[in-house]
Amino acid sequence: MQRSVTLAVSATLAVMIAGCQKQAQQAPAVAAADGAFAATLQERLLDAKPGDVIVIPAGRHQFERSLSLRADGVTIRGAGMDRTVLSFKGQKAGAEGLLVNGDNFTIENLTIEDSKGDGLKISESENITIRGIKVQWTGGPSTKNGAYGIYPVLTKNVLIENTVSIGASDAGIYVGQSDGVIVRNSRAEQNVAGIEVENTRNADVYDNVATGNTGGILVFNMPGLSQQGANIRVFNNKVIANNHENFGAKGTPVSSVPAGSGIVINSNDDIEVFDNEVRDNATTNIIVSSVYSTGYKDSSASPNFDPYPERIYIHNNTLSGGGDSPDGLDLKALKVAMYGLTGNFPDVLWDGYYNKERMVDGVKLGPQICLRNVSGVVNADGPGGYKNPSKDAKPFDCELPRLPAIDLKRA
Hints:
Layout: E1 4-6, H1 37-46, E2 53-56, E3 59-62, E4 65-69, E5 75-78, E6 84-87, E7 93-100, E8 105-113, E9 118-123, E10 126-136, E11 148-153, E12 156-161, E13 164-166, E14 171-176, E15 179-184, E16 187-189, E17 193-198, E18 201-206, E19 209-211, E20 215-220, E21 230-235, E22 238-240, E23 261-266, E24 269-274, E25 277-279, E26 284-289, E27 310-315, E28 318-320, H2 329-339, E29 348-350, E30 359-360, E31 363-364, E32 369-371, E33 377-379
Parallel strand pairs: 1-2, 2-5, 3-6, 4-7, 5-8, 6-8, 7-9, 8-10, 9-11, 10-12, 10-13, 11-14, 12-15, 13-16, 14-17, 15-18, 16-19, 17-20, 18-21, 19-22, 20-23, 21-24, 22-25, 23-26, 24-27, 25-28, 26-29, 27-32, 29-33
Antiparallel strand pairs: 30-31
């Protein structure tokens, strides 16, 4: 039998934003809540049992320590994204805002602010729903901010919808080493990576907005992780003007992402990118690359790691602007050499790394990077030190089978 745990604070807070039908860009001020609430909530989380619904009422709730939940079948529910705020601005202990290990978990309708580390981390769990959650760092973009905003890792069957992430020093909305994922109807801004799907299989990323980040949407495979990602569709998103200076911590993979990157596919296979609006990303709108061109070093690469992007199908996107001010001396020099001082990179930039010995059904075959409806492509000749770049689009004139939709098999 389901229990409902309501953590009462003040009845007057229940109507603090009544009548506010149109949300302004600036969220309304949230009144401070009862100072004893932090201890009460942590106690409820520690005592939680399957079927519990922990209701957090409206108000700004201050915490000095991380919160954690280790139980299956729990729901955490706030009064609204901009009404229930968990603030960790004065956090003195713990690495996250909220850390969860538990299957059949739902969290919805609240904001997590200013955690020392990751905002919301969910690890080694299945059947996860993250809905109506905002994670943000209110002091603006900074390397000192937590790395990840919304962060499910080592998870299965994950739904992320109607969320917002602002100011993460790595990725705003990140899904890593997971299987069966949908990220939809969400917004990421002023992060290094807006939305990142890393070493994850079977994911759909759609109907999202990524703007004002260093890179908009990243689909990465990293060498040091045992699971390799594949079968990912990125569609119906708006990826616009992701030109923020990279403020990622030095030496991290994301610190190599050029400012002005729209959609970046790195060392991943079986990726389909379609029906997106991608524009005004100053390095270029779409990048296809290998880990070899990132400068990232990892001596502990998994033995099954494939560094080359293969079977990439990019088609039917609306692409415009961008490519006029690439980040980094090598890319700037390449752009000037190929298109002049006032020219632009075309819609797609490929670093040129591929497996020259790749065999398919006994036949030597290239990387199968297939492009439709793009203004052009540059093979940057990364392996040759950018000495012999090419504008030849013929190798990319191909089609691939469409990838299937992800079905999380939820009622």
